[in-house]
Amino acid sequence: MTITPEFRPAPGDLEEHEFLVNMGPQHPSTHGVLRVILRVDGERLVDAIPDIGFLHRCFEKVAEGWTYQQVVPLTDRLDYVSAMTNELAYVMAVEKLAGIEVPERAQWLRVLVAELQRIASHLVWFGTFALDLGATTPFLYAIREREHILDLFEALCGARLTYSYMRIGGVRGDLPPGFVGKTREFLKLMPSRLREYENLFMKNRIFENRTKGIGRVTAEEAVAYGASGPTLRGSGVDWDLRRDEPYAAYDRFEFGVPVGQSGDVYDRAVCRFKEMYESLKIIEQVLDGLPEGDVRAKVPRVLKPPAGDVYTRVESPRGEVGVYLVSDGGPKPYRVKWRAPSFAHLRLLPVMAKGHMVADIVAIIGSIDIILGEVDR
């Protein structure tokens, strides 16, 4: 996606009344250090070309120099709004490669923290998306509720953003005293708060006018571009890895998968919003049926999986996070390749933007919920 000469129109290639506008990389509405080159005709978007790489940290190469266990904290720094999900994707790959059996209680705890993380991530999306469209109050409300989840994570592992809670073979530790009770209090609080968000913003006529019919992506386009998560489901494709290729303990729980129809900004937003209700259902089921037992399998201090390669994937709040892991039989990964949903969704930006107004590009970027940490890696 780097802007090469063939993608950057020369002044002589521009049609009459067309010109280029540089958006970013420090524009507040680009959700990170993203640069977008807009080709416009007046206020009308002719093209939108993303230019990435401003946050590159060489994660995949750096991981080759660390032991399998030492890589876990590095994964937190990719999608830093959903660190628990990153850790889960990576440790599952190592466990599959090494043939490690994870205790049942640990699998349930993984689902518990993954769904709490999904709600926390969607709250950040909801608040910043509202800010993008000019609404300040929803952001303050969303961050207020997110603090409850961060308090739970802090009690669980001592951190509020990058957790290092997942371990190869299970999780770092069991639930601390009072954790279940505080989580149930959150479950009672959150439905009324979500309804408040709906009345305040999701059902607001201004929000509907700014999002309906904007940034449409057909089901065929979404599949062709490798979309996943709410971006894919917003286009009417009913696919969720938690249900269709269950991992951890997801096959033990009942939950719905919100699906849109129009594939526009509005449908993508509604899918994400409704997912928070479904995550609350999953968390309640986990608390009601959490089995007893160990939370971590016995794993050698120096782990040397047999030579081979594996691919695992999980359903993150943004879509499919995939990990391709190669072992040469040593204590360090021979190769790590990270499949980031935000990277795939950013390629859809030109498809979504063409023909709309300049003001719509802000809503479109917000609707795909990109995190530049996992785009640039």
Looking at the overall shape, the CATH architecture is: Orthogonal Bundle
* Main beta-sheet strand count, sense and barrel state: 3 strands, antiparallel
- Order of strands side by side in the largest beta sheet? 1-2-3
The helix tally amounts to 15
Structure description:
There is one protein chain. The chain has 15 helices and 8 strands. It is an alpha+beta fold and 377 residues long. The protein has a single domain, classed as Cytochrome-c3 Hydrogenase, chain B. The strands form 3 sheets. A 3-stranded antiparallel β-sheet has the order 1-2-3. Strands 6-7-8 form a 3-stranded antiparallel β-sheet. Strands 4-5 form a two-stranded antiparallel ribbon. Strand 2 and strand 3 form a beta hairpin. 45% of the residues are buried. The N terminus is likely disordered.
Précis, in short:
By secondary structure, this protein is of the alpha+beta class.
Which key phrases capture this entry?
15 helices, Cytochrome-c3 Hydrogenase, chain B, three-stranded antiparallel sheet, 377 residues, alpha+beta, single chain
Show the helix and strand layout.
Layout: E1 18-23, E2 35-41, E3 44-51, H1 59-62, H2 68-75, H3 83-98, H4 104-132, H5 137-157, E4 166-167, E5 170-171, H6 179-202, H7 205-211, H8 219-224, H9 229-233, H10 241-244, H11 265-289, E6 308-316, E7 319-327, E8 335-339, H12 341-346, H13 349-353, H14 358-368, H15 372-376
Antiparallel strand pairs: 1-2, 2-3, 4-5, 6-7, 7-8
